[in-house]
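Subject: sequence -> structure tokens, single chain

Hey, anyone have a minute? Need the predicted structure for the following. Not urgent.
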Amino acid sequence: MKYGQKANISNLEDYVNQLITAVTQKTAGQRKGDEQKGRIDWDELDMILMSIAIEATALVLSGELDKLKTEEELKNSIKFDSVADKTP
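Reply:
Had a minute. Here:
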């Protein structure tokens, strides 16, 4: 599917990493000095989740996800063919 969107996989990865940081930190990121320690305020979770949804949608609409899926399917079929060749 291609609708003129441009995928930004690095942004998607950054937002997912922010989400991982936010949900695995031991505080809600609201203490004084938490920002300097790299902690994320949970008030930002809504924006992070929306950003992930937007970037994932752009990935689908750009057609880049189809390319990634096709490459993965090719790798899997090559693995399957090599295993099938070795069976008696």
